[in-house]
Amino acid sequence: MSFMRYYAKRQLVMRLELLAPAKNAAFGKEAVNHGADALYVGAPAFGARAAATNTVEDLDELVKYAHLYGAKVFATVNTILFDNELDDAVKMIYRLYDIGVDALIIQDLGLLECNLPPIELHASTQCHNAGVERIKFLEQVGFSRVVLARETSLEQMRQVRAATSVDLEAFVHGALCVSYSGQCYMSQYLNGRSGNRGCCSQPCRSSYDLCDGSGRLLIKDRHLLSLRDFNASQHLCSMIDAGVNSFKIEGRLKDLSYVKNVTAFYRQLLDSMMNGHEASSSGRCTFFFTPDLDRTFNRGYTDYFLTGRKPMASFETQKSRGKYVGKVKSVRGNALEIDGSEVFANGDGLCFIGADGRMQGFLVNAVNGQFVIPNKMLDISAGTILWRNNDQRFEKILQGKTAERKIPVNMCFISTDGGFALDVKDADGLSASSFLACEHTPSNDSVKAKALIVKQLSKTGDTPFSVSDVIDKTDGAFFVHASSLNQLRRDALVALSERRMSYFRPADCPLIRGDATYYEESLDYRANVVNAKAETFYKHHGVKKIERGVEQTLDYTGKALMTTKYCLRYELGCCLKGKCKGKPKVSLKASDSLVLRNNDHRFRLEFDCSECLMRIYAID
Question: Which pTM does this prediction carry?
Answer without folding.
Answer: 0.94
